[in-house]
Structure formats: structure tokens, C-alpha cells
Amino acid sequence: MLLFVKVQDRLLEYGVEIVAETLIEGLSRVKRCTDEGRALMSLDLQVLINGLQHFVSMNVKPKLQIVETFIKAYYLPETEYVHWAAAHPEYSKSQIVGLINLVASMKGWKRKTRLETLEKIESAVV
């Protein structure tokens, strides 16, 4: 019975990790989003965390913190994205590029600023 519980816990842990990865991948592909929409994404994540806590014995919040961090990156100042990308190797290059493209589009960055930021990230994160 103890082995079954350990296996079940491990499977739940993997499942929560896959949910986190899937959410980040989806969020990185968002093309348009307002500040309010991003805030709602964060609220939705909290609802998911609270819902999972009802039937999972482990604390899921640390496993889903990576999603919250990605959502909140939308609010960073324009000058912080290169540093943020270098400090967060847990996100793929395509996920970071998706975030930068969204932020640049929604916050009215100049094309040159977007391209320079992506170039700096490319050289800093490789």
C-alpha cells in the first residue's frame, strides 16, 4: 500500500509539472492581452491551485510558481526583459520570444526596441 501511495504521489507531481509546462507554452503563444487580461490569468491560476489542493496531497503552489512568474513578467519595465530572461533559464527561447513579442505589441514598443531586446536576449541566454 505504501508503494502505491508513493507511485500515486509521483504521478500527481508529474501531472502538475505537465500542467505548468502546458500553461506556460500556451501563455507564450498569446498574441493580444490587456493588463486586465493578464491579471485575470493570474487569478485563474490561483483558482486552479486552490482547486488542485482539494484532491492532491502535495502542495502544488511551488510547482505552479513558474507559471505565476511568467504571467507577472508581462508587467516588467521595458529595460528589465534581458536581465529577466537571463535569470530564468527554465523558460525556452521560444517562450521568451513569445512573451517579448506580446509585450512589445501590447505596450507599443518601437520595432527597433523589440528587435534589439530580442537580439540582446539571444546573446545573453544562449
- Principal-axis shape equals elongated
Compute the CA-based radius of gyration.
17 Å
The ordered string of helix (H) and strand (E) elements is HHHHHH
* Helix content class: over 70%
**Residues in β-strands, percent:** under 5%
Describe the sheet with the most strands. Answer: none
The chain-level mean pLDDT equals 93
Oligomer: single chain
The number of helical runs is 6
How many strand segments? 0
Low-confidence stretches: none
Can you give a write-up of this model?
By secondary structure, the protein is mainly α. The chain has six helices and no strands. It has helices at 2-28, 35-53, 61-72, 81-87, 93-106, 111-125. Helix 1 runs parallel beside helix 3 and helix 2 (35-53) runs antiparallel to helix 3 (61-72).
Protein traits:
elongated; mainly alpha; single chain; 126 residues
What is the fold's blueprint, element by element?
Blueprint: H1 2-28, H2 35-53, H3 61-72, H4 81-87, H5 93-106, H6 111-125
Helix pairs in contact: 1-3, 1-5, 2-3, 4-6, 5-6
